[in-house]
Amino acid sequence: MKKFYITTPVYYVNSKPHIGHSYTQVACDTVARFMRQLGHEVFFMTGSDEHGEKIEKTTLERGYKKGEEKRFVDEIVPVFKDLWAKLGIKYDYFIRTTDDYHIKAVQAILQKLYKDGKIYKKVYKGWFCTPCETFWSENQAPGGICPDCKRPIERLDETNYFFKTSEYQKWLIEYIDKNPGFIRPDFRKNEVLGFLKEELLDLCISRPKSRMSWGIEIPFDKDYVTYVWFDALVNYISGAGYPHDMERFGNLWPADFHVIGKDILRHHAVYWPIILHAAGIEPPKSIFAHGWWVIKGEKMSKSKGNVVDPIELVTKYGVDPYRYFLLREVNFGLDGTFSEEALITRYNSDLANDLGNLLSRTLSMVDKYFEGKVPEITGHGSRVTGYDNLKNKALNLSAELERSIPNFDFVTALTKIWEVIDIANKLIEDSKPWNLAKEKKTDDLASLMSGLIDALKTIAISIYPFMPETSEKMKNQLGMKDGSGKVRSSGPLFPRIETK
Ligand code: MSP
Predict the structure, then answer these.
(1) Exposure winner among 12, 31, 316, 458, fewest CB in 10 A?
(2) pTM of the shown model
């Protein structure tokens, strides 16, 4: 059976990762864990984008010499890998665009397109945004300002290789129309179609070595290297085995999801499918663009100097609360405002109060009334009002999660899990187990406790993709690991954070 193949972008390793980067990782990791839980074979790939002007420039700024780019990236890549390990990101493969097989794959595709007459050389006279490494026409960049990064663009007069992107404009529009799930969310699809209403320019896919030499050499002209975006996009197929292991590739491609941020949608939804189509390869099944984390109204980014360091946050609040916050606070697809206060509020109310308390009070009642052994129930369920409602909600939960998580609707998934938590907490308050104990209604008390423990087991399993460590802790405390039927309470899951 074909594996479920999900990717993150390959990140530029010119600076430390910030929460924007970790966002895609956490989202993909959650979906990948969920799919594995359902029994699918999963291939989750992430990696690093190591060529191009940005890296060349940073290498020099950091005191390395020209030609030492590889040494520089070799030092930064582990910083990314360490963070992913810390955040519990369980990827299956890490691709580096300086890997040998990747370089060969890029050259193989270029050679094929060149042989098929899809690549030509011409003198380019026009506008160029250096930080974005993007060519713009006069119309696209009114006032000499880059429409993406809003910085001034420059005149450029240079001979380069171009890929006949324009030939495929009509094909792509039809493809997007015929495949409604191809670009998601839906409003992003409309943005891409809007962009495609304008004339699509042929894509410049080379850089003369005389200007920028840190890249993959063009196989048919040793004076040029490949444009970094062409190089980077190919990672999605080279990492899956193209063309060196076509059997593996056949088992992975087309990718189920490329998950990206909205700023790199055009590269993924316009250029990438066209490159693939021209090379005779199917497009990915779906591209999902998420929004940005903004801080005081501005996109968090290195160049703005307003980045929040994920390491600091997880050291203070823990990995799982951080993962939970990112996916619970904002609908995936929309922009979100980051603030530490918002994280603390979520932590105290959803995690410490709702989930943490439910577990600790239930376990302490099982300890107190049944000596830590989950009572077996015989005969009728419980006459306690609200008990059936809890059972049903918990039973329906997995279907709800199967609908929402593979569609990146994390907010709905978590809301549904929290509905079960809320109902369980309310059931305790309404049924007052301490009174049942006093009145010696042992059957009712036993079935109530066993119902609560069952609900908690369902919750422990359901939160696994989002908060894997907490899920493990809960499974231990609920005795799910050893089958003894004994619970083992061991301190609060989420100690409250006191705020002044
Ligand atoms: N190297 C390219 C991607 C090539 S993929 C074939 C690149 N790298 S990046 O490191 O600059 O950005 C990687 C991802 O981080 C992008 O998807 C971008 O949207 C995301 N984020 C960067 N800042 C972000 C926020 N402030 N918020 C959310 N995500 C943002 O682009």
Answers:
(1) 316
(2) 0.95
